[in-house]
Amino acid sequence: MDASTESLARQWLRAARHTLILTGAGVSAESGVPTFRDALTGLWARFNPEDLATEAAYRDHPGLVWDWYEMRRDMVRAVAPNPAHLAIARWAAAHPGTVTLVTQNVDGLHQQAGSEHVIELHGNLFRNSWLHGCGRCDAHRTDATHPPSCTACGALLRPAVVWFGEDLPRVALYRAQHAAETADVCLVVGTSGLVYPAAGLPGLANAAGAKVIVVNPQPSTLDTTADAVLQAPAGECLPRLLAM
Ligand code: OAD
Hints:
The protein is an alpha/beta fold and about 240 residues long.
């Protein structure tokens, strides 16, 4: 990696009045959580999203999809935040009120690393919601079905993550877009930039005048929007980039 590009990026970050940090699966890769699209290890290389991450799939094969999410929950419970999560948390704590952290990840590792007010665009693996519940559904009183269902209406409990074809949580998206429009610097870490609307945030920030920094060991579609591309693993690059 070009040391002068990294030093320029450091200067932008230090001078920024407001920084948007957007993360994707790559920030958790060094913790041992597989990304979605990496050719050999990515989750979507082994599973078809249509089979597992849609409402239709859940209705067709609820037990199978529930078990897949249980497997991912177990996998994430067994890992820990890596130096990239920790560097982001430390940086935000040292610059109170000036950093907005937006993640596409559902693993909760930013929070485990100490980050506060994380905007989760795609939900959280460890929460559940109801698939078209009756309004009186109570997660503490479920039928012993697989997956659990509401004792009153039979609605299925589901993981509170955003599936293909579903809208993002409205408030989270609004806050992320507002942060993009008001940031001086947008630091993008470990995302392929293929899934919208999250992938549109760096472009929004760039159009509003922010410097965009991309951290990714591989080329990504966001490189063309970037003012600086740091081609390195996040766990290696961020502790240097965000050193105080
Ligand atoms: P992807 O799997 O599409 O992309 C992961 C990116 O991380 C790739 O560009 C890798 O090159 C990069 N990467 C791998 N190891 C890295 C490392 N050590 N440091 C930095 N970068 C690294 O994951 P996302 O872009 O997050 O959505 O995917 C976006 C969304 O697609 C996910 O949130 C998920 C998925 O479908 C939903 O489930 C709704």
